[in-house]
Amino acid sequence: MNPSEGLKQLLYDRFLHFLHLAEHISTTELKEFANFARMQGLTSFPNNLTDIHIIDCIGKNEPINNTSTAAKMNLSKASVTNISNKLHKEGFIKRSQMNDNKKEVYFSLSSKGRQVFEVHTMMHEIIERRFFDGLNSFSELELQASLKFFQTIITQNENIVNGDRKT
User: Fold this and answer.
1) Count of beta carbons in the 10 Å neighbourhood of residue 21
2) How far is it, in rounded angstroms, from Cα 92 to Cα 115?
């Protein structure tokens, strides 16, 4: 094994470790959000991340319709319909129609949904700040190489997800 192969193996091992950590974080993210939300004084919030992310999508794009929400979230329209019905019933979102189009329903946040949106935004700002702080020791070239690495991994994984399993 030449030195570059050893380095590739080390990168692969670190990448697998990263995936395991990301999976662990993903499974604990809802608990972290719930704890953070309670610390911010929220007593009512959805009990799954997809619902919270739908609230986030609506908050960033309101008023937004079902089709646009589905496209932005990479979910089916049927899934968004089911989730939005539940969020509406629980009082997190409001529905409205535009004057020029009575057929299309648009979503916006209720005050209760706005609170969830704001807490979710605060939590992501903390995560982003922590991420940026971790990159402060990187040079511009190292950041560019890291970006190229992640883009290569993303492209490979998107190809796998889309059914192109070339090795």
Assistant:
1) 10
2) 9
The two three-digit tokens of residue 45, written as one number: 């919030």
Chain centroid to CA 78: 19
34 Cβ contact partners less than 8 Å away, ≥ 6 residues apart: 45
* 24-28, 65-69, 101-105 — most confident range: 65-69
Q: What's the pLDDT tens digit per position in 16-26?
A: 998 899 888 87
- 42 backbone φψ class: left, alpha, beta (φ>0; ψ -120 to 50): beta
**Strands 93-98 vs 101-109: parallel, antiparallel or unpaired:** antiparallel
Distance CA 116, CA 109 (A): 9
Do 20 and 81 touch, CB atoms closer than 8 A? no
Phi and psi angles of residue 106, each rounded to the nearest 5 degrees, phi first = -115, 145
Query: Interior CA angle at 6 toward 13 and 3, to 5°?
Result: 155
